[in-house]
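WP5 quarterly update. Target: Peptide ABC transporter ATP-binding protein. Source organism: Devosia geojensis. Length: 344 aa.
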Amino acid sequence: MTMPVETPLMQARDLKVHFPIKRGVLKRTVGHVRAVDGISLDIRAGETLSVVGESGCGKTTLGQALVRVLEPTQGSILYAGKGKAPADIAHLTETELRPYRSDIRMIFQDPFASLNPRRRVIDIVGESLRNFGVTDEREVETRVGEILRKVGLRPEYMARYPYAFSGGERQRIGIARALAVHPRLVVADECVSALDVSIQAQTLNLMQDLQEEFDLTYVFISHDLSVVEYISDRVAVMYAGRIVELSESEELFARPRHPYTAALLAAVPRPDPRGARERRRLRLTGEVADPANRPTGCAFHPRCPFATDRCRAEDPQLRAVDGRTVACHYAESLDLKGVNADAA
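Structure tokens (predicted):
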């Protein structure tokens, strides 16, 4: 008997976020920055899907669109977390979005900038509770204390202000704020990038524990491939506003199929006493493609050592290759090295 296919928790279809470029006294639109340019993506319940790429590739804009901090220019975002048929939340008004706000939350990048220094922890974490119907202040205090314990902070800390905490503790407060209303989907935008390595590890372990306890789904946005390898179930690689490779994490790190993915992996620090890996390293040169003036053909071709005339003329589409999806004309034929490849 054929087993039913579970509906993804969220599905993005042909999602675009374009920002107009206005010039002149009359502020006429003369072009667009295509920060997200036609992304289709399924997010499975309970998984950690990481989105990676260099600065400027559009990954943060994608995350903000998924939680509707930004309204997409085009496309749909189907959310199936309410136990009903998937609802398209891409273009809902703020009033229409309100029932979904408690289900879809965000953890922000900078723990020093994302917390209001003039508000106590109980106000920062408790605000979302009050926004979603908890009016009894004793209940707010009780629930804030409970979630602080879950993230490894003492409940009595709720009376303090952000300046009293370290960077790692502030990020825990940010996590508590996101989880206070029991969401199903959490978008974590570079949430450990501002922390030192030891605190990063503690925070990642905490996030995994909370994911298991609360049955959370993560979209984890990062430029740090070492962190992504540790936490991810699947990885989506973005370049110039589009996904160029989407794969199970273990397979992507073992054998990338897109030259851009291979170049990102080559930058991951690995001990290599024989030096062979350094000799074969695929290096990135040049700048990230301008999202306001995308190159013809494959956007990566000006930086790709394998580019041909076909790459310069024909834009590759995402297609299935060995159980993953890749946007490269030569995905099957290129011999690209992963981080665990034996030194030659």
